[in-house]
Amino acid sequence: MNLLSNRYLVLSFGLTAFTIIPSPAQHNTDTSRRWTRDTVILKDVIIKATRRMYSEQQIDRTIVHINALPSNAGLHIVDILNNTPGIMVEDNGNISIYGKDQASVFIDDKPVYLTGKELLNYLQSLPSGILDKIEIMPNPPARYAANGMGGIILIRTKKTGNRGFNGNLILNYGQGVYPKSNSSFICNYRDRHMNVYGMATYSQPHTYYTAERDRAYHFPNGTGDYNILQHNAEINFRWAYSYKSGIDIDLDKSTSLSLSGKSYMSPYRETGHYTTGFYTGRQPDSIVYSNSYLRTYTTHYLLNLGILHHFSNPLKEWSLNMDYLTMNDQGNQVLNSNTFTSGGNWQNNNTLFSFNPFKVYVYSVMLDAKTPVAGLLTLETGLQSSFSSRESNGNYLVQDTTGLHPANSLNNSFHFNENINAIYGSLNGQYKKLTWKVGFRMEHTHVNASILDIQYTDLFPTVYLQYKLDSGSQQALRFSFGKRITRPDYQSYNPSIFFFNSYTYITGNSLLQPQYNYEAALSYSHTRIISIGLQYNRSSNYLLTAYKQVDKALVVTNANIDRSNSIGINVTNALPLAKWWTVNLYQELTLNTYMGSLFSGNDLLNNQLTSYRVNANQQFTFGKGWSADLAAVYRSNNLYGQAIIKAVWQVHAGLQKQFDKHSTFNISVRDLFHSWSFKRHIEIPGAIVDVSNQSDSRFISFTWNYRFGSNALNRERKSALQTEAGRAGISNN
């Protein structure tokens, strides 16, 4: 074998190494070489499989891995969120992060254009089988829309990087008082230059709701005091189907094109029975029995077109995304009421018919760019524009002893258009142990509706700092500051009335103003064992759900108050007590304060309360594919404007068996002691209202998860430029 001088070749086979050693006369023209055979004794190589961490901390977000807990199998997203440290979902659709209300929800970087009950219903129809992880951003970076005081909950769905044809089938059945199901099917085909994928889900979250309401009315001289006692019982049946398909194509070595479409269909049927009694003492003056029959059919359609281009520098890229979303909701309700006197004699009958079509159209475009500036500095910039149009019509008919008549005082038509244009920039850098990210976002908002036309422009800065306290990066300090806005949404403005019964209804408020929020946070973390955070939040023109009395009806609406403050501390622990036992513990203590007038100068609000919350889950690994978890959630009394939400708690358990690399079976029990009951205590001028809600929250669930296709390790599909960047040790995240 003729080899050139100064060339070395090492070949290794098993535990033996063959080395070619140059002769002493390296510079001679004689290139002969001598072979030696060296026996090498290697040390033992131990490969350890570690459990997936339940949560991890980054400079601007906390990432929670859903599949780390077996008890999360077979649930819908609302249950998952309520079991996630720092997140709470109320029964009215309000979502909070670290004690801050009004969080926004994104799915795969796309905002969910729903709020309140509509958002709650949509999230309850999405099964956990499609979820990969949840990213919690109390103070989101400049790339994301500034709307939402509570920050952003970013839900990421599952994707696979395996070559060939792959898929995941999840079949689920749950049984509480009523049957439930959350099943999904995901598949994709990937080769070197193309990926085609599809997803289908089916959800059947049948449930019931019971509510007890006690309204006590007090007058200054005690004359005329009376109570209204209500018992509400609802049974609802929802079926939800969603489908998604798409294709990603590499047009060349540096440019890729993506096209996807998604549809969602959900028929809904609800039957409600309501009893309302009027009392001036212990005996009722009159009782109203109401029956409600509600039918809705909801559809969503989303189209997305995206282009991604990489330059010769692997850290330099631009992307373009265009979205079109349409939503349609057709709702019909019949509310029949019969009134009886205290002696049990029938007095009158009243029937209310309502027809409420609701349509939404959303168009959005995003142009984002990333480029290195100098050294470790990276600049991200972008332009974003969205236009949304919403239209609803409230059509009401009343039938009484005189016949069927239009309810002209209730009929309405509401149009709402919103255009938001934004520009943002973010500069990321690192100097020794300090990592920083500074950004700004400017948004111009134009709202045009049936009853208002407003425009405003705002600037939203964000700052993130992370300092590693030791050379091993075991300890870190993080600081963040940001400004955000909460815009009144469509339903907050909408004057249409939704009747629970004749004495309880929801309506909007056309006089609302946007809310501004400032937040500062400081945290310390030591590896993944402990993290301690402090937050301070101040809001002006605070938007909240408000209650008032109109005649004998309790009206739920929205209002601005002067300001709201919150200050809190949270602690996260991950404690590996044994090789087979890990405890994840999250605790938070928050002081909330609300100050200002509501509907008039006489409705002054000055409430404050300190609340405590703890999430604890224990993960167990028993070997031979067996694992389990036991989770518990407790939250003390919590304050939200006029309402004190009473303490709630629940316990979950899950058992999982992995039979092979393809198949897994889960059994989980949700709300083991049926303790998840929302209770509110509300004080309004001249009245005290107590409400208690209970649902079908306790159930057992069985889930079978089957993965098929290529057995190769997951590999993210990258362009040639990204691959070369990886070889050079350059991160492109």
Automatic annotation (TrEMBL):
Residues 309-706 form the Outer membrane protein beta-barrel domain. Pfam families: OMP_b-brl_3. Transmembrane segments: none annotated. Keywords: Receptor. SUPFAM superfamilies: Porins. This is Outer membrane receptor proteins, mostly Fe transport. It comes from Hydrobacter penzbergensis. The lineage of its organism: Bacteria, Pseudomonadati, Bacteroidota, Chitinophagia, Chitinophagales.
